[in-house]
Amino acid sequence: MSRHFGSLFALDEVSFSMDAGDFLVIVGPNGAGKTTLVRTLARLARPSSGTVRLTGDDWLAAPAERQVEVGVVSHATFLYDGLSALENLVFYATLYGVKDPERSARQALEDAELSSLSDRRAGTLSRGQAQRLSIARSALHDPRILLLDEPYAGLDPHAASRLGVALGRLRSAGRAIVLTTHDLARVPAAVTHYLVLVAGRVADSGEWSTLAEGELADRYSRAVARTE
Amino acid sequence: MTGLKSAVAIIAKDVRLEARRVENLATMAIFAVLVVVVFVFAGDPTPEDLSRLGPGALWVSLLFAGAIGFQRWFAQEERNGALQGLLLTPVDRGALFIGKWVGATLFLLAIECVLVPAASMLYDLHLGAVWPKLTLVMVVVTIGYAALGTFFAAIAAHTTAGQLLLPVLLFPLSVPILLAGAGASQQIMTGDGTAYWDWVGLAAAFDVIFGTVCTMTFEYVITE
User: Fold this and answer.
1) Radius of gyration (Cα) for chain A, nearest Å?
2) What is the number of helices (H) and of strands (E) in chain A?
3) Which of A14, A201, A228, B79 is deepest in the core (most CB within 10 A)?
4) pLDDT tens digits for range A60-74
5) Average of pLDDT values for B165-187?
6) Is B88 in contact with A81 (Cβ distance < 8 A)?
7) Do A46 and B223 touch (CB under 8 A)?
8) How far is B48 from chain A (nearest CA, A)?
9) Residue B81 and residue A64: Cβ atoms within 8 Å?
10) What is the band of A139 on the pLDDT scale with cuts at 50, 70, 90?
11) What ipTM does the predicted assembly reach?
12) How confident is the model at residue B127 (pLDDT cuts 50, 70, 90)?
């Protein structure tokens, strides 16, 4: 797919495929098009050309009900400052059609180690706490695909480590995960594939297991240098 | 999840948020009353003038208060990208619009609960026997105005000049329904009810047409 704003290409003929249980990490410098790619996959933005297929169907033309198949973490937390942590999750669980919204929300808070903050308004949470709440929100409905755009923003090392473990569990359970980051040191251990995105183009991609220690950093640096 | 359940969840969320910052509604109600007061002081009107101007002033004040309100009520969806969060859910976009529309209608009606008694005192309007008819007009007109306001607030929220754009888009298209409101109110106040139902019918037709169009096209104004 491609996505351009006037003459500027945010995504230029980006193409890749994933299976259930794949964990793709997309690395790239600021402005590489990572967020645009995630937004397009999430159907928050439309590509200028090209398409996205999910289990063979045209994902971009699929009805809104199928949005339940995807969970998204973005730079924005999607939270309502005036609602408590619990109320935010109950609201989203209700919209996602989760059977027992309150029970699911409480469980998600517990998993995110946020139970003690359940009655706190989201607007009073720290950036890291809000990010953890946002991550909990994204998985409330047990989506088959998780799209995480720089999910480590604001997380302390403990929370980041727990996120990595949680993502590993989800991958083992057959969920497909796409995670973008510009911080190579924070690539989770459960990653199965990588994609280097530079200036809107796929500069490199492959299976994670084929990479030697530190090789991604070298490939990344070379890819960035080629475009400068 | 059915569209109705989604709409109800959105309405409940908006009412809860508004109840927690009731000063917003109070400020808008005070603003609306102040607009009505300004009309009283403009041009040194006689009691007869006041009685004649009353219905028009009532609707003009609601027009301004609504323009402020729609902006604020939609702005909460822009904070933290909450609107995108809604778009990521499987909620039908029409249900999303209806949720926001009903919420805005309820908030406007709450403002009117303060505005109408204040205007009746200031303009010496005798509402004793006519309040059921006036209530009907207020509700029908408010529904249509809230539909347009919610729709254009969503458009304005996506533009850099949103605060300026909203009234520019909203006011011209609101003229028919506000005329209907003023016309029906005038009929009630003057005791000449011959055209009352014509005006109410016009407002109801406006509700149906714009409510339907806005619900069906909302998806296109909130997605990139």
Assistant:
1) 18
2) 6, 10
3) A14
4) 999 999 999 999 999
5) 92
6) no
7) yes
8) 47
9) no
10) very high
11) 0.91
12) confident
| Tokens coding A130 | 């809000």
Most distant CA pair in chain A: distance in Å?
Answer: 52
Q: What's the CA gap between A143 and A27, in Å, rounded?
A: 23
Task: Please report the pLDDT score of residue B194 as a whole number.
Answer: 87
pLDDT at B1 over 70: no
Strand, helix or coil at A11? strand
Instruction: From chain B, pick out residues whose CB is under 8 angstroms from the CB of A74.
Output: 81, 84
Residue B141 is given by DSSP the state: H
Residue A128, C-beta contacts closer than 8 angstroms, at least 6 positions apart: A154, A155, A156, A159
pLDDT tens-digit map of B27-47: 999 999 999 998 888 767 787
Kindly give the residue spans of alpha helices, DSSP state H, lying in A42-156. Answer: 85-95, 101-111, 127-138
- Model confidence at B213, in pLDDT bands (50, 70, 90)? very high
Residue A223 tokens read as 């890819």
Tokens read off for A122: 């989201």
H or E segment to which residue A196 belongs? strand A193-198
What value does the mean pLDDT take over residues A74-103? 95
B1 vs A101: CA distance, rounded Å: 12
Contact B140, B207 (CB under 8 A): yes
What is the Cα–Cα distance from A167 to A177, expressed in whole angstroms? 8
DSSP one-letter string for B143-172: HHHHHHHHHHHHHHHTSTTHHHHHHHHHHH
The percent of residues in chain B predicted with pLDDT above 90, rounded, is 61
Do residues A117 and B31 touch, judged by C-beta distance below 8 A? no
Residue whose C-alpha is closest to residue B210's, from B164, B169, B158, B167: B169
Which of B14, B23, B78, B80 is most worth mutating to test chain A (most A CB atoms within 10 A of its CB)?
B80
Cα gap B77→A161, rounded to integer Å: 31
Which of A76, A80, A92 is closest, CB to CB, to B89? A92
Helices B47-78 and B93-122: crossing angle in degrees, nearest 10, is 150
Of the candidates A78, A81, A137, the beta carbon closest to that of B84 is on A78
Angle ∠(B215,B217,B220) on CA atoms, nearest 5: 130
What is the rounded distance in angstroms from the CA atom of residue B203 to the CA atom of residue B197? 10
A66 vs B: CB within 8 A: yes
Nearest to A64 among B9, B92, B224 (CB): B92
Q: Does residue B76 sit at the A interface (CB-CB below 8 Å)?
A: yes
pLDDT of the residue at A133: 95
Dist CA A30 CA A38 (whole Å): 14
For helices A85-95 and A127-138, the axis angle rounded to 10 degrees is 20
pLDDT score of A183: 85
